[in-house]
Amino acid sequence: MRLIFATNNKDKLREVREILSPLGIEVTSQSEAGCSFEAEETGSTFTENARIKARAAMEATGLPAVADDSGIEINALDGGPGIYSSRYGSGRTYRETCLELIDIVDTCQDRGARFRCAVVCVFPDGREITAEGVIEGEIGHVYEGEHGFGYDPIFVPEGFEHTMACLEDDEKNAISHRGRAFRNFAEKLHIFMENGETKE
Ligand code: IMP
User: Fold this and answer.
1) Could you give the count of Cα atoms lying within 13 Å of 156 in the half-sphere of its Cβ?
2) Residue extents of the structural domains in the chain
3) Is the pLDDT of residue 193 over 90?
4) Mutate to test the pocket of ligand 1, among 15, 52, 70 (most ligand atoms within 8 A of CB)
5) Ligand 1 site: residues with CB under 6 angstroms?
């Protein structure tokens, strides 16, 4: 089974390939399929934005396409930056933004946070599969770790002492929001392939 993965983010592409290829699903990035556009994320939820990206790639290629939309929700920011995670602090490095977030959270009693990931796969006949994954945790006291990307160096998953950026890729994928969402998606895709039905 081969799907177009609607992303220009190389970190996501690497993670999703590692998650899906053992499950028999190969992904071709949209740029490998000859489309390098960035669909505008005008939705108000992760799922809506994932659907917008997946539809744009499916319409451009005529092939089944999958997209994810993800971000970090921080209690001290009332759930923000959420769907605006990739644009939050724009113009600065992730390190600068992460250090500022630690300062903000340090002034608050609640360090709680979570990563959320929505996955939408659309087929040329209009059918779609959706899935979601969440990992709970908190904003750490220090910036640490060299793996992963984005907000990983300040996110300490529940039950762990160090940040997600201290985990190797395969360890992160085993617990991450993206790992959970794409494994759930893969289960639904296999049912879809066997029965020709989407089971929501
Ligand atoms: P998207 O490409 O619109 O889904 O943006 C996702 C953004 O959320 C990324 O650019 C990161 O800022 C953040 N994000 C999502 N997943 C992760 C992750 O696994 N680690 C760290 N940051 C993430």
Assistant:
1) 14
2) 2-195
3) no
4) 70
5) 9, 41, 69-72, 85-86, 115, 148-152, 176, 178
Residues 6 or more apart whose CB falls under 8 angstroms from that of 155 comprise 72, 113, 115, 137, 138, 139, 140, 163, 164, 165
Say yes or no: domain 2-195 is CATH 3.90.950.10. Answer: yes
> Ligand 1 test: best mutation among 7, 8, 85, most atoms within 8 Å of CB?
85
Q: Kindly tell me the burial class for residue 105, based on how many C-beta atoms sit within 10 Å of its own C-beta (0-12, 13-18, 19 or more).
A: buried
Name the nearest CA neighbour of 121 among 2, 13, 11: 2
Q: How far is it, in rounded angstroms, from Cα 29 to Cα 154?
A: 28
Phi, psi of 156 (to 5 degrees): -100, 110
pLDDT over 80 at 120, yes or no: yes
pLDDT at 200 over 80: no
Tens of pLDDT along 78-100?
A: 999 999 999 998 889 999 999 99
For the chain, give the longest Cα–Cα distance. 53
